[in-house]
Write a structure and sequence with these properties.
The chain has about 325 residues and is mainly alpha-helical. It folds into two domains: about 55 residues, no CATH class; about 240 residues, MetI-like fold, CATH 1.10.3720.10. The protein is built from 18 helices and no strands. The mean pLDDT is about 85. This is ABC transporter permease subunit.
């Protein structure tokens, strides 16, 4: 009797196990979802992965009239020449300085703004402020630079107001000493509001029972912020920081090109503008491609290292 009961239970367990579907069955089941993914996959393949094959130019003395196959192979000569260029190291220095300022001043700005927006009680006021701070993201850099020129330029509103009161600040738009702070302020004004979207989503995903429990225990708003809100968005903040480190050597090509002539190449030359002026304008395709390839490899290495560091601190990172 006991044996028959055990056998019956075993049969029930076997019958209730989910059957593994074959790849063909899964493709047949999910073909509509896969079809929706095809345009996005093709976009990345055509415009991101296929152009990677052009990095072979970095190892050749490329000439457009000879083509990639006809251009002679020079190995690492372009990289050696690049590392001996003082202009390249000046561009690297400017890029790292601007990146450090943006990590220090811009990266925390969307987090702080998201915390402030989350603290607003009125939903209409919150939505109105969100709409206002999102709008600058949709303006082109041409418009943003022109607006800053009209406000703090030599003949701008702020400069004119201060001059009438005996305070001379000069033309901040053409001052090399303050240029790096200026471009950081421009980035904050333009993209700070847009950057709050992800952090606001992370804050709203926090279980409200945690706040209620903290309030019952007597925690004020500062304690709730420190012990509930910030730990709740820590993984998202770390993920965004890792992604930002991967893009650490890109500080805005269009923004720099528009203001490079006003302050000079010594203050505004970054790696992206160096590649443009030496590659496209001067025709030194091999060396400029070598600079771009080095930039990409350094960014990939930083993402890998930062992700490993996140795993050591117990966070998920961006991949396992």
């Amino acid at each position: 009797m006991v044996a028959s009961t055990a056998a019956a239970r075993a049969e029930v367990l076997v019958d209730t196990r989910p059957q593994r579907r074959t790849i063909r069955d899964r493709l047949k089941r999910d073909w509509t979802l896969l079809a929706l993914c095809v345009p996005g996959v093709l976009y990345f393949v055509v415009f991101f992965y296929v152009p990677l094959l052009g990095n072979v130019i970095a190892f050749k003395d490329y000439a457009p009239f000879l083509g990639i196959n006809g251009s002679p192979w020079v190995g690492l000569e372009n990289f050696a020449t690049l590392l001996e260029e003082p202009e390249f190291w000046s561009a690297v220095s400017n890029t790292l300085q601007i990146t450090a300022l943006q990590l220090l001043l811009y990266f925390p700005a969307p987090i702080a703004l998201a915390l402030l927006l989350n603290s607003l009680v009125g939903h209409r006021v919150k939505r109105f402020i969100q709409s206002v701070v999102y709008l600058p993201h949709f303006l082109s850099w041409v418009v943003v630079v022109a607006m800053f020129q009209q406000v703090i330029g030599g003949a701008g509103t702020v400069s004119g107001f201060l001059n009438t009161h005996g305070i001379t600040i000069g033309n901040l738009m053409s001052n090399p000493d303050t240029f790096k702070l200026l471009v950081t302020a421009q980035v904050i004004w333009k993209d700070c509001g847009w950057g709050t979207i992800i952090f606001l989503a992370a804050i709203t995903a926090i279980d409200m029972s945690h706040y209620e429990a903290a309030a019952i225990d007597g925690a004020d708003w500062k304690r709730r912020l420190w012990h509930v809100t910030l730990p709740g968005i820590r993984s998202v903040v770390l993920m965004m920081l890792i992604l930002r480190l991967g893009d650490i050597l890109s500080v805005g090509f269009e923004q720099m090109v528009l203001q490079r002539d006003a302050v000079g190449a010594g203050a505004a030359e970054v790696i992206d503008t160096y590649v443009y002026y030496h590659g496209i304008r001067d025709g030194d395709w091999g060396m400029s491609t070598a600079a771009g390839l080095m930039k990409g490899l350094i960014g990939a290495a930083l993402i890998y290292a930062a992700n490993k560091l996140a795993h050591r601190f117990g966070e998920q990172g961006i991949y396992r």
